[in-house]
Amino acid sequence: MWKTIRRWFDPAELRSVGEPPDYRFSLANERTFLAWLRTGLALVGGGLAAAQFLPPLPMSHLREVIAVALLLLGAAVAIRAVDHWARTERAIRLGQELPASRFPAILALAVGVGALLLVVAVLMRAVGGP
């Protein structure tokens, strides 16, 4: 595990593997990484917004649970982004098949389930009154 994490911070080690690829592939990989990083930042921002601006919800501590869940999901997306970037860059340099990932599906399910839970909370508040 530490070897994998070390690769994230050691571009010389990454560049010592395989052959230098067409720079367009590396740039596309970097753009994908940055898109994932923006997603992580948006989730962190949503978590902070939930903690600061959501009114108290009908269920005790629901606001805090939402905020913490968004913050943790944002952190997971950011960490997963750098890992996927490094594994993809390595595969490109070695001429291997790009690594498959279930993470986008897991993230989509987490966001979908979270949205449905929020719909339930909003409806409970609407039915319960102000």
What does this 3D model show about the protein?
The protein has 130 residues and is mainly α. It has one domain (22-128). 78% of the residues lie in helices and 0% in strands. The chain has five helices and no strands. It is elongated. It starts with a helix and ends with a helix. The mean pLDDT is 87.
By DSSP (H or I, 4+ residues per run), the number of helices equals 5
The domain count comes to: 1
Report on the biggest sheet. none
Structural class designation: mainly alpha
Give the helix level as a range of percent: over 70%
Number of beta-strand segments:
0
Cα gyration radius (Å): 19 Å
Which spans of ≥5 residues are poorly predicted at pLDDT below 50?
none
| Shape label | elongated
The SSE order reads: HHHHH
Beta-strand share of residues: under 5%
Mean pLDDT: 87
End-to-end separation? 50 Å
In short:
The protein is mainly α and 130 residues long.
